[in-house]
Write a structure and sequence with these properties.
Elements: H1 12-25, E1 30-35, H2 39-48, E2 51-58, E3 61-65, E4 71-75, H3 77-94, H4 97-100, E5 102-108, H5 116-129, E6 132-137, H6 141-151, H7 155-162, E7 169-173
Parallel strand pairs: 1-2, 2-5, 5-6, 6-7
Antiparallel strand pairs: 3-4
Helix pairs in contact: 1-2, 3-5
């Protein structure tokens, strides 16, 4: 079903160390590093003294490109739920580490790669763990209209409907809203 995406980093540990050192060098004292983190990331962040919110990301679907370059999705809801459980375990192991400087949060990757069920399960888990949530939403016009096509709701409306929105939720990017001139929604 198309070409599998390439990993952004060949060596996750080296990439994470570089990112953390660059953030600290440029004056960031508290960071949110989402998605591709590991136990080694936690140890290194602790050793350099930075405050960090760290979490592995998870999703219900992966992007795939078709032969003509069209965007598609390969769905695996069970993998999304397993990813949420891995994130819960990661938070259980590391939340409050290094004198409280390391914290956890939940990170369902993007609104178009997560099912409403995964978002509902994320909200429940965040409430149980007492941690925040971040997800990427409204990143581009394709995603915005994909959510309208798939759910009959804008990306933000979908998140509201699933209960994901609330105190402690960060919506990364959130560029495409009904107010954006390219959304092309009738008034």
């Amino acid at each position: 079903l198309g070409v599998a995406p390439m990993n952004a980093r060949e060596n996750l540990d080296v990439g994470n160390r570089f990112a953390l050192v660059e953030l600290l060098r440029n004056g960031c004292t508290t960071i949110v590093e989402l998605g591709a983190v590991s136990d080694a990331t936690v140890a290194f962040a602790g050793s350099i003294g930075i405050r960090a919110y760290l979490t592995p990301g998870y999703r219900s679907a992966s992007y795939r490109l078709g032969p003509g370059g069209q965007l598609g999705y390969e769905w695996d809801e069970a993998a999304g739920m397993r990813g949420l459980e891995r994130a819960r375990a990661f938070i259980g192991a590391h939340h409050g580490a290094h004198g409280g400087r390391i914290r956890g949060m939940l990170y369902p990757l993007q609104v178009d790669t997560c099912s409403p069920e995964l978002f509902r399960a994320t909200r429940k888990a965040a409430d149980e763990l007492g941690v925040g949530i971040s997800t990427h939403v409204g990143q581009n016009l394709v995603e915005f209209h994909e959510m309208l096509r798939r759910h009959g709701k804008t990306p933000v409306e979908l998140l509201d409907d699933t209960g994901l929105l609330g105190p402690g939720t960060i919506l990364g990017h959130c560029l495409m809203t009904t107010a954006h001139r390219l959304a092309a929604l009738p008034a």
